[in-house]
Structure formats: C-alpha cells, structure tokens
Specification:
single chain, alpha/beta, Collagenase (Catalytic Domain), four-stranded mixed β-sheet, 7 helices, 4 strands, globular
Length: 176
C-alpha cells in the first residue's frame, strides 16, 4: 500500500463536503459478523474524509482471505492474506480508489486483540481510507501521525483508541 498523491491534513471538513461509498459484499458471512457493515463503512469513510477536509468516492470490497491473498499477490507480490488493501486511483480519476477487507483476517485480529468486530472493522476502513488520502506508515514519524489520525477519527465515531490498547497489551505500536 503505497503513498497516495495527497498530503495528510487535519480537522473536520467544512459544510458541503461529501463522501460516497459503494460497498460490495462478496463473501458470505459479512452481515452475520458485522450486521451494519455497509452503513458503518460509510460512516467511517465520511469521518476520515471530514478529518482530512476532503470529499470523494471510493469502492469497498468486503471479501474473504482467499480473495485478499490473490489481490495481495497480484498487486504487491505478497502471497498471503492481509486485513486491508488500498488501491489509490490516479489523480483526476473521479474516485479516491478502492479498498478491500478480508473477513477471516478481521475475525482473527479482532479476537487476538480483544476488540469487537465492529471496532476493528471501523479501524480497518479508516486505515484504508487514510492510505487513499496519502497517509502511510513506512517510517516511525509517518506511523505515529497515521495512528494519531486513526485514534481521533475512531474517537469521533465512538470507538476506543486501537493503538492505546495495543501498546498496553504488547508494549509496542504496530500498524494494522
């Protein structure tokens, strides 16, 4: 997941900015695991965009580990499933890009980290959206800024800071 072309910003968007999210439910089990996944995804994207003072459209694929392994291998050369992939669109494409989230990986990570499925799902949507907006976590400074943005956005959505939980549990900070 490389850096996008837009620099990270901050603060809520002025009135009039909007977001549009097309949610594609590809794998069975998504609505059983996160019954409000489409609406929660839209809220999480809107919150991330508002935090950055941006608006736009993106497509979110809710799939399984097999599909994310295929996408991860095909686009990043990594032959393994991952939690979230982001595919920024070229400048001027009329969309921010695409996100894909794997249900199996989401389940395993939520259980391992003691999070609810909804909280971890919201975190992955925010994380992926920030990647589409140009955030990354390749250096310690970038990671810290991205984690702080995620924590603030998730707080505004009513979810706990996932990094505080991880730091207390593991003694370290790591990216989703």
């Amino acid at each position: 997941m490389g850096s996008g072309s837009r620099p990270p910003g901050g603060g809520f968007a002025p009135a009039g900015l909007s977001s549009e999210v097309d949610v594609l439910l590809e794998a069975p089990g998504w609505l059983a695991a996160v019954p409000d996944a489409p609406s929660l995804a839209r809220r999480a994207v809107a919150a991330a965009l508002a935090f950055e003072g941006m608006s736009g459209h993106l497509t979110l694929l809710l799939s399984d580990d097999a599909e994310l392994k295929r996408l991860n291998g095909g686009f990043r050369g990594k032959e393994k499933a991952t939690n979230v992939l982001s595919f920024p669109a070229p400048e001027g494409a009329g969309t921010l890009g695409d996100l894909a989230i794997a249900l199996g990986t989401l389940r395993r990570e939520a259980a391992a980290e003691g999070r609810t499925m909804r909280a971890h799902f919201a975190h992955l949507v925010v994380h992926g959206t920030l990647h589409l907006l140009g955030h990354d976590h390749l250096s310690a400074g970038e990671a810290r800024r991205m984690e702080q943005a995620e924590a603030r956005i998730l707080h505004r959505l009513g979810f706990p800071n996932p990094w505080k939980h991880n730091a207390q549990r593991t003694g370290s900070r790591r990216a989703a």
